[in-house]
Amino acid sequence: MTPQELQTIIASGLACEHLEVSGDGRHWSAVIVSPAFEGKRLIARHQQVYATLGERIRTDEVHALSMKTLTPAEWAAQQAR
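User: That's the sequence. What structure does it adopt?
Assistant: Structure tokens below.
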């Protein structure tokens, strides 16, 4: 799997205002900005992302995914720094 493929999978299951994915084919890192994260704790945000991956997580196709999950307001505040 390529970073672009993983990005497409996440974006197809979650409305993202910003999405960056990098990795080596097994270990991944992602910055995900979505209004769907509004009012949700970190664990709930991560569960939403994992839900988009479905079987790919359970079958170890995506072995590890490090995520930074932000709302659009959190992202804007971070970019303003």
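The chain has one domain: 3-80.
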